[in-house]
Amino acid sequence: MPRPDKKKRRRLLWQKAGAIAFWLVVWQLAAMGLGHGGLFLTTPLGTLEALARLLPTAGFWHRIAFSALRILAGFVLAVVCGAALGAAGARWKAVEVLFSPLMQLIRAMPVASFVILALLWVRSDNLSVVVSFTHVLPVVYAGVAAGIADTDRQLVEMAKVYRLPLSRRLRYIWLPGVFPSFCESCAAAMGMCWKSGVSAEVIGLPDDSIGNALYRAKITLTTPDVFAWTLVIVVLSASLSAVAARLLRLAQKRLCGEVNA
Hints:
Number of strands: 0
Low-confidence stretches: none
Number of helices: 10
Helix content: over 70%
Mean pLDDT: 86
Strand content: under 5%
């Protein structure tokens, strides 16, 4: 007899599969209704056929490597800098006052406006690094600052009274308090950095990038390729978000000795 938790997970899996199937049917019907040979909206099968045509080509994988390396570089830099600035802002009020307006400005600025400005400073090849960095930075900064603010102050005071070493304070008080909020911010930032990074490529049009291929498919009215590249972006974003979440859970287990559900 399957356990209740397994039955619940199986039922949830079937529900998700049913929801996906429903929207695939809606997509198919919408494409058939618009007609014009899929010029305005290709079918799911047309998207898969375009993807199958792109997969064996070297250019396809070269574009993925080109964009992924730059977007992930921006993400990693933003995580490191955001964590450091968030910790500094929580420790020193002057740092928070200094950087808060900048973080709010970055959050409010449209991606297109920032990309156009960034093109004045950097080459188009490195544009996605800069844009991914700037749009992930405030998310991680806010996550770390919130995690530090939510840390149990009684435990902090107790550590001061008993003069616990800094290494033990970090492992048993600060890291367990910060990690949940930090993990949530990183998971949200991963999807955000892909959207902002590819948007930057669509505007800057660096050679051999995913954004360049997406734009070329659009102006040549190769609609199946537009949907195929969009599917690639979604899969890459979801896959790397899952990998990042897994690595963060392993890091939490190793550093804090626990993993939140």
